Write a sequence for this structure.
């Protein structure tokens, strides 16, 4: 009798376990795949028009979001170099950004960059006053100017108005456009060997004020 009772209990327990397992299996669904916001081909709005989330300030110059949703960089009392850099790094991409130079306007868009304080390693698509090679590529703390636009293209920049710059980097190749005009095309193995942050620059010397908006990147 005791043996039969133990067998019955064991049988009931086994049935319960089996039922629980079957119910669990029928209810289980695979977890949804993590949605990668930086998947290749997807456009990423690097600046949200509200705050500096996703960015880091380097230096003592001024970076802030104005009431109209534009990003403003201004010379501070130290009148030194300053940078606003993405926390994320990128390699191959197609970047577009709009800017308006309200004062001196000596600035730039860095790519494949890294920073220690205000010492930056990387390449700059130049944003500068008229006649100073906007759209050219400059290597900081390295080889200097790698390429500048033809002199006939210097007039493409609209000082004091909104301009649109596009920077496309694929492998060793870099192409820039300003207001729809191709400014340069460069092939450089050193650029192709690196990835890094996107960074906006404010030049030293004081008196600089530039507005930025619609900073959008597509990874390639």
């Amino acid at each position: 009798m005791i043996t039969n009772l133990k067998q019955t209990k064991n049988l009931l327990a086994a049935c319960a376990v089996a039922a629980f397992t079957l119910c669990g299996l029928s209810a289980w669904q695979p977890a949804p795949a993590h949605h990668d916001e930086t998947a290749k081909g997807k456009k990423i709005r690097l600046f949200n028009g509200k705050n500096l989330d996703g960015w880091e300030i380097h230096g003592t110059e001024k970076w802030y979001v104005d009431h109209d949703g534009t990003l403003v960089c201004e010379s501070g009392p130290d009148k030194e170099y300053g940078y606003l850099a993405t926390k994320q790094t990128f390699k191959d991409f197609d970047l577009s950004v709009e800017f308006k130079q309200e004062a001196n306007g000596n600035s730039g868009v860095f790519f494949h960059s890294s920073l220690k304080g205000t010492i930056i390693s990387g390449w700059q698509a130049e944003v500068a006053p008229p006649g100073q090679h906007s759209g050219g590529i400059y290597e900081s703390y390295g080889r200097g100017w790698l390429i500048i636009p033809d002199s006939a293209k210097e007039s493409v920049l609209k000082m004091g108005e909104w301009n649109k710059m596009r920077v496309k980097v694929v492998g060793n190749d870099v192409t820039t456009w300003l207001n729809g005009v191709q400014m340069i095309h460069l092939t450089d193995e050193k650029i192709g060997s690196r990835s890094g942050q996107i960074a906006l620059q404010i030049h030293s010397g004081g008196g600089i004020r530039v507005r930025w908006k619609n900073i959008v990147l597509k990874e390639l």
